[in-house]
Design brief:
By secondary structure, the chain is α+β, with helices and mostly antiparallel strands. It has 2 helices and 3 strands, in the order H-E-H-E-E.
Amino acid sequence: MSQDSDGPVEVCWPVPGGQAAQIAASFPDLTLRTEPAHQEAFAHPGQALPDPAQLVPVVEGLGSWVAARHRQPAGGLRQILIFNLGSGGQGTDIEWAVALRPAGQ
């Protein structure tokens, strides 16, 4: 990573557990990681936000939703890019998500 980098990129794709090692072997640069089942809270503002300041109300709303349900985050905020079939190839939609600790923890 350098000062010109936005940081690490993670590509997530669910695969059948019994086939994960075989699939990963086909991609030598792939780091196979599994994550236990969990709940996530997410916000879907639609297409990517052109101005970073527009992210503030999205993140605040997500945090308010989580707090109002007496839940706790179980990790950092994730930006998820989703290919939008309805956009005519004009880009992706975006979601912001945070994993949640099990209720009562």
